[in-house]
Write a structure and sequence with these properties.
single chain; mainly alpha; cell division; coiled coil
């Protein structure tokens, strides 16, 4: 039973770590996309 509880804690910690990593990557992607939008030349009017 203790091994199972420890495994659950380990998996929860890994989930938290992966969620934080995903959030950081998502923020980086948004920043890069925003930068690319700013670098575009204006459309002809």
């Amino acid at each position: 039973m203790r091994r199972l509880q420890q495994r659950i804690r380990d998996l929860e910690a890994e989930l938290t770590r992966l969620q934080a990593q995903n959030d950081a990557l998502a923020a980086q992607t948004r920043d890069e996309a925003f930068s690319r939008l700013q670098e575009r030349e204006p459309a002809l009017t």
